[in-house]
Structure formats: structure tokens, C-alpha cells
Amino acid sequence: MTSHNFFSRDEIPTYSQLTPGFVAENLETLISDTNIEINRILNSPEELTYASTINRISCSTEKIHRLWGATNHLAAVMDSEEWRILIDNKIPLVSNFFSEFSQNEKLFNLFHILKEKQGIILKSSEKKVIANYIKEFTLGGINLNVKDKSLFKKHCLELSELSKKFSENLLDSTKISYLHISLSSLIDNPNKLAGVPQHLVQSSKKTALSKNLDGHVFTLLMPSYIPALQYAEDRDLRFNLYSKNSRRASKLSDEGSQFDNSPVLASILRTRYKQARLLGFKNPAEMYLYSKMANSPEEVISFLKNLSKKARPSAERELDRLKSFASSKFSLEKIEPWDIPFVSEKLKESLFSFSNEDLRDFFPLERVTRGLFETVSELFNCKIRDVTKKHPDKVWHNSVQLFELYDGNKLIGHLFMDLFARDTKRGGAWMDESRSRRIDKNNLQTPIALINCNFSLANSDDNDSYLTHEEVLTLFHEFGHALHHLLTEVSEIEVSGINGVEWDAVELPSQFLENFAWEYATLKKISAHKNDGRYIPEALFRKIIDAKNFNSGLQMLRQVEFALFDILIHYKLESAQSPSDRDIFAEVDEILDGVRAEISIVPYPDFLMFPNSFSHIFDGGYAAGYYSYKWAEVLSADCYSKFENQSQESRGRLGQKFRSEILSQGGSRDTIDSFRGFMDRNPEMEALLRHSGLT
């Protein structure tokens, strides 16, 4: 196999040299070598111990996880035809390996022997690894007969290919769809761009030039789409942009059916139901909840409907206020979805005397990053150093930064941050792992995390990018995920960092860290006005806090709507066995309409093809799990409540306890035990409702 430091225990991987050619050349050999090593371990005459079996097996399989994970990461952030072809060609190979691994009866028997045999002494974290493997193998079809195992493997491959297709369709549709405002239209209507922030006017002009067009081009990438919808006074501009975004990856989009995700998501759902029933579950929701904190779909549905009930009175008042303001201020007798961001922003400015764009001037990315690092250092006693210039060959794009994380003088991990939007990059924000912590034969392997966002590139004279407060929250959120991965002290790779953490609890550290971006002490650290360098005045901070829960009821209902739709299509899709994609998609629409009738109070247009771009559940690991955001927010708000009104000294002690009881534990024990270790009690919803302004 070709040498590459990507497999090193302690070197930083050189992403710039990781090519589709390298993966194509080495992946098959790597899988073959791993299978040989697994068979050697299973047939070894050595004494049966955790170290001689599971530890050796995970050392071998880790290389595949790393290489395939990096392949998918680079395809997500540096999309190209070469990466797509490679993944298309190698998905069957990788899917087959993991399917056969989780259906290996000798391995499954080994787990049970280690778990039950007297005289084998296991640490609690090792017991958790074994318990997780038994669950994983059960969900992988270990208990099926030979015929059904083969069918299950076929479904796994189909789902891998379908999820990739869903993602590519959405990316391609997003890239190809944009709104062009020509110079001639600006002559006819000089006020066409009225209200659009100056930074967006400039960037939209650059985007037009890059497409050999005159005038301005607004894209569906979030740094362009969101502020255009919030600030453009021209209602037609807002409608046209909203319409294009709503039709993405559907037959109603600009490109027609070329990137239509309707048949893709129908096939995904049909295959998930087949998988679930093969395994003995009634539906995919039960299957996906088998390894989560929530016990049943009914519990999730009850949780979501309870949140909806709590939020609805506030949401109704908020919508009435928006309607009244839209009528009196803009003569809008009916407020449409493409009006809501604009009217909301204007109402917020009227009520609190500032706008999101006013705040942007206070948040240069360099200062935000430095202040974030200071906050993390104070809470968790760790230091972060920028080493990008020291290792320029390690990054996959020249805008990516590389950091080292220290506990005193001890290096504990690395962090890559890829923060800017590109046409070749998946939308949204996410954290992923590059390498996980482990100790093997007393040799420490340090973890590496990857943070990905989609912020605007610099458009200012000082060559720094400026963030909205929403984007600041996003950065804090993803950094919370990274800390969960980097500050782990667990030796077993399967449960170190974010590995092995229940999916509906994995958002706890990320949402917890967001809270500190609402504190004045933190805002002073992360702010420096572009004109004079002053931090946010206390009077403006008070307005920010007053505005924090603006429209929070509407926002809560929106998240509940998404989550309830997700759990229901994985719980009660009667057409799932139909061979007709049209039947399935029709019922998906019917379920969505029912959820909106029950939960939403905002009208939706007929052309909104929301499921076609719901990548979280069709390509992001959140199938029957979108509720996790609110579920984990109950935990995170509860944990943060312990920090409220505490002295700096007390907060330092609490930060260390949060680190030791939650961050350092990774997935080595159930999250409820980590939560109780920090809070000394069970979770309560009161803090979430209070923080959301719903009590």
C-alpha cells in the first residue's frame, strides 16, 4: 500500500496530497489487509482479552474509517467530478465491507464471550464498547438468515448510493439556480436593490462578473440568500429568490427534473422500511431509536407535541404582531413566507433599534475566533494555537486554518477550520472527525476535528470577514462539537470523543457553548467595531438580550414541524411497500400537510418542495432523529443554568466539572449518566422554556 501520513498515529495528515487517485489505489488493498487481520485475530491462540481481540480489530478497521471519512469530507468541501466518480466506484466495496463486518458471527460470539466469561476483567468503557458492538451488529443484521443477510447488505448499498445522489442533486441544483438582476432592470427600476446590505451588493456584483453577466447575481448559498431575504425592500426580488430556493432539487426547479430528489427520497424511505422490517422492527423510527436516548417513537412524538403546546400561544401573538406591522408599515394585507424574514427584521429594528447588519460591523472573524478561544480557555483550561503558517501543506484549501489544542504544555489534539462558502462546498455548518483518540500499547493517538461553515469571504477594506450574531452562534455551536471530540480522555476509540454518543445527545456540548455567545463578558472578547475597534456597548448588549427571544415561539414551532414530519414519515408511511415512487411522495406530502395543519401557523405556498432539500434526514444521519436538536437542548439549557449568576471562580470550577463529567467521557457511558454526573439529578425542561422566553 502506498505510504501516506494520513494513517499516522501522531502526524498531522497532509490533506493537500490526499487525491482520488491515492484512495482508488489503496482502498481495496486496505480492506483486504483488514479482513486478513480480523481473521488472524479470530483464529489466534492468544489468551482471550480485550487487548488481544477488540483493540487489535479496531486498530485495523480504523484505517478504513479514516480513509473513507476523508474521502467523503473532501467530496463535501472540494466537490469535483473526480471525487464523485471515485465514490460511485468505491461505495459497493466499502458498503460490503461494513455489512460483512457487522454480520460476522465469529466476532459477534466473541463479544458475548468477552461480556459474559468469568475471569475477564473489563473497564467500564470496554464494557460500553462491547455493548455498543452488540447493538451495532444487531442493527447490521447479524441475527438474520443467510438469504435475508444478503438482502440486508443489498439495502445498505442502495441507501449509501441514494444518499450520495440526494446530496449531489441538492448541491448541483443549488449551484445552477440563482437570481440575476441585470443592468437594464436596474435602469428601469433604480430601487431594485434598495435595502440590500452594501457588502452583499458588492459580492453579488462580483458573482455576476464570475458568471460573465452584468449587474448582480444573488445565489442560494446562505451568505447571499439570507440577507437578501431579510433586507431587500423589493418584494418581487424576495419572492423570486424564495421561489428558487423552495424549488431546489425538484421538478419545479429552474433545471426541471434533472436534479429532482423526489424519486430519490421515495426510494430511500422504501428501502429504510424494508431494512427495518427485515430486522423485526415495525418501522424505521423504531430501528433508529434502538440506540438513542429516547425509548420509542411515541415518546418522541409526545415530547414534540408538548413543546408545540408550550410554544403556540407565544407564536400566535408573534404572528399577529408581524401581520399588524406589515399592514401598517408596508400596506401588506397578507403576509407571505417571503415577506416574513423582511418584516421580522424591520419589526425587530423598530422594537430594539438595531439590525443584524448593525451587529455585523462588530464581529470581525479574526476577533471572534480569538475571543472564542479565550472563552474556551477560561471554561476548560485549554489553550489553542494557530499553526497554519507552520503547516501550509496540510490544508485542502488556502482559506482553511489549522490549530493545536493544549492542556498546559501537553498537546491534546488538532483542529481544522474551513469557514467560507464555495460553489464546490456543501451548504450548512458541521463538525466531523479526522482522527479519534486512542491508547494502544501505551502509545497515545491524539484526536483531530474538522469544523466546516459557510461564511462570506472578506469584502471589507481591512480584508477581514464580518459575521452576523447568528453566524457567531454557529461558530460557537460547531466549536462545542469539536471540544467534545478533542477533550475526551477515553482510551477506546469506539467511545472516545463523539464516537458512541447517542445521536439525540450529541448536540449537548454544541448547544451548551452557544449560551456563552449571549453573555456580555464574551461579547466584549469577540467584538471590535470595524471603524474604531470598540467592543459592543452595554446599551446595545441590553437590546440584543431583549431581542434574543424575538419570534422564539415561531422558531420553536418551525423546528417542531421539521422534527415531527421526520419522525412520522419514518413511523407511519403506509405506502412504503408500494413500488410507485409517486405513491410514496404523495403520502410524504400528505403527512407534511398534516403536520403543518397541526403545528404551523404560517401559510406555505404550493411550490414549496421542502422534503427535496431536507438533507439532514436524507443525507445527514438525522433520519428519525431531527428531534435530537430539541431533545439535546433540554439537556444543554439545563446544564448551562448551573453557570448562571455564578462568579468567575465558580464558573471555572463548573467548567472543569463539565469537562470531566461530559466532554472527557465521550461515549464511554450513557449520556444520562454523564448528565447526572454533572447536574446530580435528572433533566428538567424548565431552563429551555425560560431561555426561549416561553415561560
Furnish the topology, listing elements before pairings.
Blueprint: H1 20-42, H2 51-77, H3 81-102, H4 105-116, H5 124-139, H6 146-176, E1 178-181, H7 183-188, H8 198-210, E2 216-219, H9 222-231, H10 235-246, H11 262-278, H12 284-289, H13 297-330, H14 340-352, H15 356-360, H16 365-380, E3 383-386, E4 401-407, E5 410-420, E6 430-435, E7 438-440, E8 443-445, E9 448-455, H17 469-486, H18 508-514, H19 520-526, H20 538-547, H21 552-569, H22 581-599, H23 615-619, H24 628-641, H25 648-663, H26 671-679, H27 686-691
Parallel strand pairs: 5-9
Antiparallel strand pairs: 1-2, 3-4, 4-5, 6-9, 7-8
Helix pairs in contact: 1-2, 1-3, 2-3, 3-6, 4-5, 6-11, 9-14, 11-22, 13-21, 16-19, 17-18, 18-24, 21-22, 25-26
- CATH class of the largest domain, anyone? Mainly Alpha
**Structural class of the helix and strand makeup?**
alpha+beta
Count every beta strand, where a strand is a DSSP E run of 2 or more residues: 9
Helix content: 55-70%
The major beta sheet can be summarized as: 5 strands, mixed
* CATH architecture title of the largest domain: Orthogonal Bundle
Strand content: 5-15%
Any idea of the CATH topology of the largest domain? Neurolysin, domain 3
**Outline:** globular
Count of spatially separate domains: 4
Question: First CA to last CA: what distance?
Answer: 61 Å
Q: Major sheet: order of its strands?
A: 3-4-5-9-6
Which segments are poorly predicted (pLDDT under 50) over 5 or more consecutive residues? none
Global mean pLDDT: 96
Rounded to an integer, what's the Rg over CA atoms? 25 Å
Assembly state of the chains shown: single chain
